[in-house]
Amino acid sequence: MATHSIKTSWRENNIFDTDLDGHKVTIDLGEDQGGNNAGPRPKKLMLVAATGCSGLDVVEMVRKMRIDLKGFDIRIDAEMSDEHPKVYTSMKVVYEFTGDNLPVEKLERACKLSFDKYCGVLALYKSAVPVTYEVVIHN
């Protein structure tokens, strides 16, 4: 079993820095929350992790299927609770493809495989909250 370990260090005020695979990631709060807006918010980074994880899966499958995409975006719309601890209560992943004569069935299959089988981040989130997905194709 693999182990991942990271260390996040407090810099000042509400700013934290992490060295992540040789890349500096800074986390902060918005100015309206007492921060300096020096970096993204932690909960939104959870959504980035999910879109990145699933996106990497889908791109690899699309490449193997020899599908020529002009564009590919992933969006997550996440609902958050009003009470503390403020947590995501549901998520919807939207896969959006752009291209000419795209094979709808193959793209839907790639998204389904990532969503149901390969993306470990989404698997973890699905164990905690309802997560759905949608495939949108723009020809």
UniProtKB/TrEMBL annotation:
Gene3D superfamilies tied to this protein: 3.30.300.20
Segment forming the signal sequence: none
Name by which UniProt lists this protein: Putative redox protein
The species this protein was found in: Fermentimonas caenicola
